Amino acid sequence: MKINDTGRIGSINSYQRQLENQRQLTDKKMKRKDEVSISSAAQELLQAQAKEKTADPARVQRLKELKEQVSSGTYQVDAGKLADKLVPYFKSFGDNGL
């Protein structure tokens, strides 16, 4: 009568190899460091923002006034100007048959 079956030893070894592989993978993941990269488009936006801060003082003042008016609720929209800007947009829908 056989007490030790050789097939069982192979299955134990494969289980141990699987555990060892998982340990190695987690060790590699833990050693990895986070990286941050800024795309060229984002760099251009940052440069544009920096230029905006040093832009024309009159424009900066006007933007500040507009922001204050919007936040306080006193900004009034000129309906005529708005309609003039929207007319070409709606005409393009008429040309396409929509």
In brief:
By secondary structure, the protein is an all-alpha fold.
Shape summary:
elongated
Structure class: mainly alpha
Q: Which ranges are low-confidence, i.e. pLDDT below 50, for 5 or more consecutive residues?
A: none
The strand count comes to 0
Task: Report the biggest beta sheet as strand number plus sense, adding barrel if it closes.
Answer: none
The sequence of SSEs as H and E is HHHH
Radius of gyration equals 34 Å
In percent, how much strand structure appears in the residues?
Answer: under 5%
- Helix content bin: over 70%
- What is the residue-mean pLDDT, rounded to a whole number? 80
Distance between the termini: 88 Å
Number of helices: 4
Descriptive labels:
single chain, 98 residues, mainly alpha, 4 helices
